[in-house]
Amino acid sequence: MKMPISKIGFIHIENIEKLFELKSGSFVVLPEGIIAGKTASSIVFTRKSYFEKEKEKITVKKEGEYSILGKEVKVYKKKLCELDEKFKEGMIFSAQKLTFPFVLRGRREGDRIFIPRLGYKKLKKFFQEKEIPFYQREKLLIIEKENKIVGIFGLYIHPEYEPKSLEEEIRKTTNEKTALEVELREIQKQLSKKLEEIEELKKENK
Question: Whole-angstrom Cα distance, residue 139 to residue 137?
């Protein structure tokens, strides 16, 4: 990553210095599409493309495979007792609550989630508390139902949309599929790749 030194002014240097006093997730825009951002332990320099918000949105109307945010997503119903141990990284919702259609999308300005006993919290603050690096936030998959965030892949499920317990399902005499699984196993690999790229950029700037 190269940027002409002549385009860096005093104000840019001053803004970078101020980052050390700000919270993790804060960033400043520099010339040539470069962004300096603060993580939990360092200042990272990267391309603006990491921060450009995805406008992509998909309406899921039935079980199947979908592509969004550069990822492959599988959505299907199962009985809780049929869920395999290897799919624990998937997200499991109540199929009675998360009914079709629902929306898969990226983060938007002003997003909020419901936290039991606390009420609604801004998604930005939630990410800061979870120490989610700023360069990962725009790529996280959000599940939305009736204009309400019901899930953030790997991080959050709205309490009303959590599945019933396996013990409760076993007591039933019906063969109804009560769990809806959203599988996105590739996301961890992609985030790891981003982290490796960031580390390479940091080495180049030393």
Answer: 5
Determine the Cα–Cα distance for residues 115 and 145; give it in Å rounded to an integer: 16
Note whether 164 and 80 are within 8 A (CB). Answer: yes
User: Which ranges of 28-165 does DSSP label H, i.e. alpha helix?
Assistant: 123-129, 134-137
How far does CA 111 lie from the centroid of its chain? 12
Question: Contact, 70 vs 51, CB < 8 A?
Answer: no
Tens digit of each residue's pLDDT, the chain (206 residues): 565 666 778 888 888 888 888 877 677 888 877 888 877 778 878 765 554 444 578 999 999 988 887 788 889 998 877 766 544 557 889 998 999 999 999 988 889 999 999 999 999 999 989 988 877 887 899 999 999 999 999 899 999 999 876 556 555 545 677 788 888 755 445 545 555 666 677 677 66
Query: Which ranges constitute the DSSP H helices of the chain?
Result: 10-19, 123-129, 134-137, 166-170, 186-204
**What three-state secondary structure class fits 146?**
coil
- Residue whose C-alpha is closest to residue 79's, from 189, 163, 186, 195: 163
